[in-house]
Amino acid sequence: MLKLRINPVVAKDLKNIRDYIAEDNEDYAAKTIKEIYGKFENLQMFPGMGADLSKRVSFRTDYKYAIWEDYVIIYKVSNEYVDIYRVINRYQDITRVFD
Description:
This protein is of the alpha+beta class. The protein has a single domain, classed as RelE-like (YaeB-like fold, 2-Layer Sandwich), CATH 3.30.2310. It is 35% helix and 27% strand. A hairpin with a 2-residue loop joins strand 3 and strand 4 (71-77).
């Protein structure tokens, strides 16, 4: 099984997601973050389950993406690692995370 690496920016992404949801429902916010981490583990076990990000953006990239509810997990697979790059709302412009 590949090792999992999480970009430090992902912690900020998840905090923002949790804070936004927690304004209405603390329990659901905690559940959402837990489920996103579960998705990271799924990607670690099955890294090919996502789609090529190049098909969704107007530039060539080695990143892949997986959608879980309203969130897009952007990641890259190498020989040893699944690198989680960002977690964003699916309605955000994905290209902006690469600026």
